[in-house]
Automatic annotation (TrEMBL):
Domain Aminotransferase class V intervals: 26-395
Domain of life: Bacteria
Cofactors that this protein relies on: pyridoxal 5'-phosphate
Protein's job: Catalyzes the removal of elemental sulfur and selenium atoms from L-cysteine, L-cystine, L-selenocysteine, and L-selenocystine to produce L-alanine.
Protein name from the UniProt record: Cysteine desulfurase
Catalyzed reactions: (sulfur carrier)-H + L-cysteine = (sulfur carrier)-SH + L-alanine
Entry's EC annotation: 2.8.1.7
EC class: transferase
UniProt record similarity statement: Belongs to the class-V pyridoxal-phosphate-dependent aminotransferase family. Csd subfamily.
Keyword annotations from UniProtKB, A to Z: Pyridoxal phosphate, Transferase
GO molecular function terms attached to this record: cysteine desulfurase activity
Amino acid sequence: MENWDIQSIRRDFPALQQMVNGRPLIWLDNAATTHKPQCVIAAVANFYAKDNSNVHRGAHTLAKRATDAYEGAREKIQRFIGAESAEEIIFVRGATEAINLVAQSYGRMVVRPGDEIILSNLEHHANIVPWQQLCDEKGASLKVIPLNDNGEIILEEYTKLLNSKTRLVAISHVSNSLGTVVPIKVMIDMAHVLGVPVLVDGAQGIPHFKVDVKSLDVDFYAFSGHKLFGPTGIGILYAKKTLLESMPPWQGGGNMIKTVTFEQTTYNSPPNKFEAGTGHIAGAVGLGAAVDYLTRLGPEQVEIYEQKLMAYARNALSTIPQLRQVGTSAHKAGVLSFVIPGVSSERLGEYLDHQGIAVRVGHHCSQPSLRHFGLDSTIRSSLALYNTFTEIDQLVLAVEKYLC
Ligand code: PMP
């Protein structure tokens, strides 16, 4: 930890150097999106400036460079998450698209009338709506694991929900509204006893700690590049190769085929089978650079630093008597949600913005998790590896100033 040079890390992020409303920007909206280090910006710019070409199809130098960069990024991501093969890494637009892909391909293949899909009460809408749509189409039903007062999944209730009708468990790694870290390894092992595969929505997990899909034995892992210091419009679906091989394609077009006649089409093997059309090549290259950056810092070091910051922030917020923290699990990452009874969250959010402090106010696309606490909105401050203890002090000071 001694070598965690926060000032040098912050210098890697040009967007953090700006003034907003006359104050140095304090970015506490990392659960919505993260800023990009210069190496990511440079990788994207360099791709467009020099290597720009479509991949695979061209027989010329730039096509080869673009293909190498694209497939190289896939291999970097494979190594970063500990997948066995680069064929298990599907490029998608983001976590939302990854989950829709699984629902529409794997889900449509296996779910029958009367079947059940297990979710939890802390999911983002992206990990609810695609399953609801699938259940409506198939005459299946959603089963929801309830939360306790700390915003944690009640494992005993999960055990009760798992049965021979369960076709899939779909859970977040970390809640984007409460910050709760979900004990996914235990939950995966429990599902596997019944032969049930598990999809983990890792959008808020992977930015905060090391994720190893092999040791987790997770079947599907979805995340977005833009929350991992990479570009928007690119994300990853990891899936075990055997599953990908068994799944039908979900979109048709170029790249995903082997042969096409008007009578019949044969499909490419994974990952191409699930990547119809031209992908976000520059985005993938940028995400590859983000993963290189994180590898240099060390995801384990990121976790140690952020956990210290999280503990400090929880303690600092608790010194404001009126403030109620929402989601009080001992095991949290990234997210600090709070409300102040009698105070408009929207107004406080605007005030903080005037002080250069970016937080988010609203339901954070996770209405059921807030409803559990009788709320329809919170103020969410969310941390990343470049935030500082001083920034937390400034947040607390600004809230105190608003209240007096
Ligand atoms: N799941 C979680 C837990 C999230 O926080 C988000 C983004 N807020 C998503 C899914 C969806 O990510 P995206 O919009 O990048 O597809």
